[in-house]
Amino acid sequence: MIFENQYIQERIKKADELRSEGINPYPNITKPAVTSKEFNETYEYVKKSESKRDEDKSVTLKGRIKLLRIMGKAAFAKLEDSCGLVQIYYSRDELPEGYYNKIKKLIEVGDIVEATGFPFITQTGELTLHCKDLKIITKAISPLPEKFHGLQDAETRYRQRYLDMIVNPKVKDIFIQRSRIVSLVRRFFESKTFLEVETPMLHPIPGGANAKPFITHHNALNVERYLRVAPELYLKRLIVGGMEAVFEINRNFRNEGMDHTHNPEFTMIEFYWAYHRYTDLMNITEELFEYLFLNLQLPKILNYGDKRVDFSTPFAKISYIDSLTSIGNIPADITSDKEKIINFLNQNNIKVDPNLTLGYLQAELFDNFVEDKLIDPTFITDFPIDISPLARRSDENPQIAERFELFIAGREIANGFSELNDPIDQYERFKAQVEAKDATGDEEAMHMDLDYVRALSYGMPPTAGEGIGIDRLVMILTNQHSIRDVLLFPAMRPEVAIQTND
RNA sequence: GUCUCGUUAGCUCAGUCGGUAGAGCAUCUCACUUUUAAUGAGGGGGCCCUAGGUUCGAAUCCUAGACGGGACACCA
């Protein structure tokens, strides 16, 4: 049984004792209360008063008991609420007759209580609530982890995030910051007249990214559905339909490996902007970062682990090909020659499929020699066309896509491009992907989406679109190095213990 | 998927060469009416992750597995 542990049994017994004393351990009551923060600020003046107390005031605090020190006929407790900690004091002679002895052993660490009394200053100078009344609001029957070391075990922290948040208050700060970031991103795009939309999560055809999808079944229609790997193709249909600036902040699902930068479901913002080009995207991206740094009151230089990242704008801009030489230190005479690239990679003990196209081989060079050297925010521009199946060809150089990626701290944060809007070209590129899928068994290659091609056939104005990984953005802005630390409930294998127990 | 490290009381962790399972906090009993991880005295609490194997004897050594952390691969 889930509650067979001896400590839980002891606490269940205490809840029963409360009931037999006529005290409901789970009352449905709420009395207006002030927060710990309000209390500490409002009654700061008591510290300076001569009597060190203000008995005319009656204040109610609510919170979870985090620390409890019982000294015979009096006790101190630290309550925690959403704002922080506050101390209360209660004693036998200040509570209603006989009440103290009733509850002394029945209210304990972990319980949620409501305390009413007046502010005073203790001998050690701490502003404290002197209780005239102390009610239990919610009995906790599971004990909290150790008060000093807290909860260290990463597995328990991720599986039981609620417990992690109770015991490790700093965890909450990360998620508060995450919420602010998402809110600011939304506000930024709204202020630029972008419209927030919601497009399907259940896709008949997975599309918009090279990724393996989750597959599910829709009973009513008896059809397979794919959890979306990207909202891209739907958002661009909206541009065809006449929305000229749209964005969506939502979850994407990719059925791939998990590690400290990958969770099977992750959050992205994608935005599409008609009558704009990829150069406009780079500008608005810089503006977004300026807006975030201003409103989050972050310094322009942030530490990320042992790296120092300078977010001063404008961000560096360098073309894909140039970066191979100037950042990757790869001789310029080999970066456009398939044979030479293969030789170079082999010399560096990197195995590649010799049938790869030039663009894919250049991508191997980039991934191995350039990416992790891009610490300060850097736009890598002008990608090879064959690794950019949805991007528009450059009018000047047909081998190059009007595309960029933004790298920060050695990681891709954003990907944007001028969208391909030639329906015939799009059709051919889908076909090439499908052929690659059939020929090489590449499970991540894109599927043919004829309706999307049909949509383009009605005419999509020149459009620029970009995706920004929100989880990774939060990681960088909060100096977290595991995606699990910026996800409230990261994906975990099924928990064995709790299933076999019940 | 591969490599690597880990799993011992509710929590945080020790456990030597293979020889009866340990500490702090928490819990229980007692004392204590201004504490700060309160204090003092005493008690209880274990599927040493699981299954095999080696051995007179395994928390400890070996094999396989489960779960987790880290690194790599794929990807964003």
Gist?
With 502 residues, the chain is of the alpha+beta class. It has helices at 6-20, 36-42, 99-103, 154-159, 161-167, 169-191, 232-240, 278-296, 320-326, 338-347, 358-369, 423-440, 450-457, 470-478, 496-501, and strands at residues 59-71, 74-81, 84-91, 112-121, 127-138, 195-196, 202-203, 215-218, 223-227, 245-253, 265-274, 301-304, 307-310, 316-319, 378-384, 400-408, 411-418, 463-469.
Structure characteristics:
502 residues; OB fold (Dihydrolipoamide Acetyltransferase, E2P); elongated; BirA Bifunctional Protein, domain 2; 32% helix; alpha+beta; RNA-binding; 8-stranded mixed sheet; 5-stranded mixed beta barrel; 2 domains; 18 strands
Descriptive account of the structure:
The protein has helices at residues 6-20, 36-42, 99-103, 154-159, 161-167, 169-191, 232-240, 278-296, 320-326, 338-347, 358-369, 423-440, 450-457, 470-478, 496-501; strands at residues 59-71, 74-81, 84-91, 112-121, 127-138, 195-196, 202-203, 215-218, 223-227, 245-253, 265-274, 301-304, 307-310, 316-319, 378-384, 400-408, 411-418, 463-469. It has 502 residues and is of the alpha+beta class. The protein folds into two domains: 2-144, OB fold (Dihydrolipoamide Acetyltransferase, E2P); 179-328 and 370-501, BirA Bifunctional Protein, domain 2, CATH 3.30.930.10. The chain has an eight-stranded mixed β-sheet with strand order 6-10-11-18-17-16-15-14, sandwiched between helices. A hairpin with a 4-residue loop joins strand 8 (215-218) and strand 9. The longest helix has 23 residues, at 169-191. It starts with 5 loop residues before the first helix and ends with a helix. The mean pLDDT is 92. The chain binds one RNA strand of 76 nucleotides through helix 1, strand 1, strand 2, strand 3 and helix 4.
